Structure formats: C-alpha cells, structure tokens
Amino acid sequence: MAPSTQFEVSQPPSDAISAVIFAPDNTNRLLVSSWDRNVYLYEIAEGTEDATLINKFEHRAPVLDVCFGANGNEAYTASLDCSVKRIDLATGEQTVLSTHEKPVRCVVYSPQHSMLISASWDHTLHVHNTSAPASTPITISLPGKPHALAASPSKVVVAMTARLVHIYDLPTLATALSSADPASANITPWQQRESSLKFLTRAVACMPNDAGYATSSIEGRVAVEWFEDTAESQARKYAFKCHRQTAPEEEGGGDVVYPVNALTFHPVYGTFASGGGDGTVALWDAEAKRRMRQYQKFPDSVAALAFSNNGKYLAIGVCRGFETDMEDFNSEGRTKVFIRELGETEAKGKGPK
Amino acid sequence: MGKKKRGHPDVEELLARPWCYYCERDFEDLKLLISHQKAKHFKCDRCGKRLNTAGGLSVHMNQVHKESLDKVENALPNRQGLDIEIFGMEGVPDDIVQQHNQRIITNFYTAQAERHAATGNPPPGQAGGQGPAKKIKIETPEELKKRLADHRAKVAAIKANGGVLPVPVVAPKAQPASVSPVTGQSPAQGASPLPPPQPGFPYPPPVGVPGTFPPPGQPGVVGAYPPVYPPPGATPTPPGAPGGPGFNLPARPTGGALPQRPPYYNNYNGGAVPPPGAYPGGASTVDELVSGAARQGGGAQGDEIDQLIRAAEQGSKPPARAGEDSAGGEKKGKSKDKNMRMVYGDSEVSPEEKMALLPRYAVSAA
User: Is there a contact between A218 and B345 if contact means CB atoms under 8 Å apart?
Assistant: First the structure.
C-alpha cells in the first residue's frame, strides 16, 4: 500500500471556511478563504506533516471565494463587500477588479483564456480579461441568483436558484472580451439546462477532461452530467444520494439529509470527491458510478475541498455547517483544515465495468 | 391458549427445546442448535471450516489435512466419541435423551418449588376459587411426585411379578382404564407404533373422533385413543387432567377440548411436537412423558441424516432470505416516504446568504 497520511493545519482560520484551492503550478501551496475576513496562504512543508501559514490577507468583509490566477503568486477573491479583488501573494497588494451591486459569491479563473469570471447575488457575471486588468469587464445578466460556479478548459457552468444551470462557452467569451466594444457584446449561454437536482444547488465541479460536470444540492444528492448535447450523452447523466445518515428510531427514524457542500475532481484520474454537512468526504468514480472510498468522519461539516494540481494532496476545509434556523452561527474554534496525502492509486478509478 | 407465565416456561416448553448432545446446552430452535454444533463441535481447527457432523469433520481432517480426528471439541468428557453421528437432535441415544429430560424436569420442579416458596404464591391450580376455567391446570409437583411414586411402585410390582402386570394397583384417580394396557406394552421407548416425526412434515391428526369413540376401559383399542397427557410442548392445561377436580373419563369426548385439537396441532406442524397419536394410551407418568419426549429426537435413523441436513438447511435458508427481503422492502419504503430531515431545508436562499445577514459578518465601514 502506498502511504496515505492526513494531517491538520496548525494555524487554521478563526471562522467558517468558504473555499480552499491549490496553486496551479505548485503542489504544496494552497489558499483558504474564510468568513473571518481573511485569505490564508499555506505551504505544505515537504517531508513534514504540516502546512505553514505563509501569509494572510485581510479583507473588509468575509471572503466567499478564492481562486488562483495564472500562477501561484496571484489570487482572486470574492467578497461580501461586493468587490472582486486581485491579490499579489508575494507583495500582499490588493487591487479591486470590479464591484458588483451585491456580494460576490464565486470567482473562477480560466488559465486557458486568461479570464476571471465572478458571479454575484446581483444576478450578474463579470468576465474580466486578466491580461488587461484596466479593461472593463463584460457583464452578463443571469435569470437567477448564482450559487456555484465552475470552469472546465472550455466551459463555465453557473448554477443558480430555481434550479437554473447556464453553461457558457469560454472561447466565445474570450472573443467577445477581445472585441472592440466588449460592453455591448450580446452574450448568450451556450446551453441552458434545468438542474437534475430538485433542491438548491450547493456546488459545481467540472471534469478536467472537459467532458462534463457534477453538481450537488442541499438535499444530500450529487448529479453527474455531460456537456455534449446528444441524446446518448444526456442519457448517461445520473444522480445519486449521499451524505445522509439514518436517524435513530427514537427520533422518528428516517434519514437525516446533509447538504453536499463541496465537489472537486481529481486532476489526473477524473474521479471526484464530495464533502457534506455530515462531516464525511467520499471519493467517487464517475465512470463506474461507484463510491471508491469514504474517509473517516471529520469533526464538523465539510465546507470545501480541493485536490492539488497533481492530485497528490486533498485539502479539506472543515467548519461548523450552517443549518436551518441557526441564528447564533459561529464556527470559532471549530474550523480546521486537513490535508490528506493520497496514496498512488487512492483516487484512481477502476474504469467502467 | 392459556396465559404465559412470564419468565417461567412450562416444563413442556423446556422439554421441547432442542439441546446439544455434546455440551448439554439448550437452544431456542433447531437452527440455532445446528449452527452451535457447527461452530463449537464440528469446526475444523486447522482451517475453520464448519462441517455438519463429527463424521464429516473426521473425513475432512483426513482428506484435507491428513490428520485424524480423535475426539469432538468442546464436548463433555463422556460425550467426545466419534462413534455417534449427531446432527442437531438427530442421533442422540435414547438413554441420553431420557437422562437429559429427567434432569430438565427435576430442575424445573425444583426451581418452581423454590419460586413458590420464595414468592409465597400458591402453586397453579390451587389459587382458590377462580372459576372453572382455572381448574384445569397442570399437576402440582406434589401430585406429580405422588404419581411418580405410584408408578415406581407399579413398576416394582411388575418386576416383582416377573414382568407381568398385576391387577391394577394404581389409585382409581389415576385413570386405571388407560394406564393398564399401556404399562403392558411399555416401557418400550422408541418403539412407537407410528412413524417417527419428520421435520416439517404435518403430523397425522388425532385419531380419536367423538362419534367413533370407544367406550373407555376397553383394552386393545387404546392405540387409537388420544392421549390423556399432551406431549411436551402441547397445551399446558389438558382438559380433564388426572388429579384435576371433576376428572371424568367418559365425559371427555363431549368436553369440547378434544375435537378442537387438530387445529391446535396444526399450528405446530413445523415444530418438534410429536403427533398426538404417538403415545398410545397416553403417558400417565413422568417416565412415559420422558420417553415420549425422547422419541422426538431419537426417532430418525442415521441413514436419513443427509436428507435431514438438506431439509434443515433448506428450512433454515428461506426464512433468512425472507428477512432480508422484508428489510430491503422496509428500506425502500423508508426512502420513498418523506420521512427525512434536511439539515438545511431552504431551497431558495443559500446558507451563505443567511450567514451574510448575520450581524457578525456585517461589512466593516473601514
């Protein structure tokens, strides 16, 4: 058995985690954004079982999402103060890229097109050309409030309220962005879909091979779909239940259903991990439609997940999960970041049966 | 059926329990006994394979491990032999069965007497003026012991008489009519005139029909006579039990209890209850009760053992599968019904939006 170890980051954020992500060019570097208004930059010390806090970048408001830019020294953040920011991780310099009318929920960077897309609760997407930071972003209005965003090499998937899913074609966006008058460009979605899940979408993740994506909902369910709009491909899509627990009989039995907060695909094997409010992380083989493994329960809800660029590490952001009617929500002291070093074939699927 | 005495099974229930020849442990049902034997006595200590019989284990040891089995594991010192082929309750020698049953009965009555002494409750049947229904009760230990003593005396008398039955010696109370012919052909344990009970095979209905009932006291037809005593496991309150108040033999056919028996026994078709007709003339003594119980287990022949194993295995598998099915069905039903609780149930507003509204996350002015 190849070794697989797991350790806890010694200086975790002080409040709930909104996102974790690994650098595109550095396996050991990761960012964690938190509701405590900070973005944390960690580096896993090679050979040891710890990740040291390199720096933290304070914001005016809780940070709802973070992503790396073109390299491991550049990051973009989405904040509750409605701004999309670029952070130079080396100098700590923060520049505001654009300002939405409402808090910004997600940011995603497309390295293939040097584009940053931000989604805000003001029902818009902003598409920024990061190679020309001063340029005005394209604003795309959405029919619903976006809740999750993910990019594949050629597509970006936006999941919204009312089970709306829009898929935009990145090359089209890039063309529009480089046109003479980006602001007037009329951008239409490449595809408009209805979510396969009946409940509010919680997370979206795209397959690294550009074939499709997975979505998850607050109702303990994950759906896997394919981009290709042919009958065969659409017939392949499926959804399954997960992150549920059987309630004890004395509480009336039935299932306690947890939201699936996080999804992330393995960059090499194309398998994916899901993290739920039940504090578990499961590895799934999308092709074989099988659960490959389920890791030992974490002390709290799993809020965020990320594989490193080579799939060696899996970062798991654990904090108290927001549940219905939680007016006193507070994740202080309960926030942890775990890093799992995967064995050679731990995340390798067996392929379709 | 009569009210169950909580925690204190009847002696018939105790006698009906299957037990292990090798270690004298008793079990709820035959299936458990068989799995016990496979796990404790017929398990190969080399590879853990569980065989069905000691002979099977011996052959396995010989062929697979090239070793010879000299004794049965975990068995009582005098029961380690390989010469007896035991499977469940099959193959247990009659004398052992009798010993076992005698022990059970002794223990039962000792325990019962102790209970009565401890609680101060009167023995059943002597509760005093609780209506006619209460009158028909099983015998008290005193009555049983008395009858046992009677029987002993009788047997002694037979022996003293050179094996020939003397003139009835038993008190008239103890149904002389049916006892005498029985003692003539008894104690021939295991020599039941009826075929041994087959597992899972419906028992023949009682032969006694009220209309064709012979006049009591006629020897020779007693074989067709329903037992006065129920076999072990049968009703604890036999109508017109000897010693009971108002015992009247000729009254029995019209007593109503007899014609009702067939449905009663039907309930036990799968169980180890011997056919009512298996005890001609009725077992009037404890010894005969014991020997009757012995027939339960001792009836089957050794060469039928394979068949029995197969039958038992078949018998034990379907219920298990049915259990799984029902469990699966239940599970399905559970997921179908809306009996689930979502930890976060708002399908319009995301948790983040709710969190954003909390004062602690308000955007600072700076």
Answer: yes
Residue B95: phi and psi, rounded to 5, are -65, -35
Domain with A258 in it: 3-321+333-339
Range of the domain at B98: 9-117
**Could you report the predicted ipTM of this complex, rounded to two decimals?**
0.84
Name which residue leads in pLDDT, B140 or A293.
A293
Domain count of the fold of chain A = 1
What's the predicted TM-score (pTM) here? 0.54
- Residue B324 to residues A47, A255, B32, B314, B350: CA-CA distances in angstroms? 49, 20, 18, 16, 40
Distance from the Cα of B326 to chain A's closest Cα (Å) equals 17
Cα-trace Rg, chain A:
19
Structure tokens at B69: 């089995």
Is A329 an interface residue toward B (CB < 8 Å)?
yes
Task: Note whether residue B358 is domain-resident.
Answer: no
The answer to whether A329 contacts B358, with C-beta atoms less than 8 Å apart, is yes
The DSSP call for residue B50 is B
**B315 lies in some domain:** no
Q: What is the DSSP letter of B90?
A: B
Cβ neighbors of A224 (< 8 A, separation 6 or more) are A212, A213, A214, A237, A238, A239, A286
The CATH number of whichever domain residue A98 belongs to comes to 2.130.10.10
**Mean pLDDT for all residues in chain B:** 64
Residue B81: inside a domain, yes or no?
A: yes
Nearest Cα of chain A lies from the Cα of B316 at a distance, in angstroms, of 29
3-state SS class at B244? coil
Do A173 and A127 form a contact (C-beta atoms < 8 A)?
yes
Assign B311 a pLDDT band (cuts: 50, 70, 90): low
Q: Does some domain include residue B278?
A: no
Q: How many domains does chain B have?
A: 1
**What are the C-alpha distances in Å from B254 to residues A233, B209, B247, B280, B315?**
80, 10, 13, 20, 39
* pLDDT higher than 50, residue B249: no
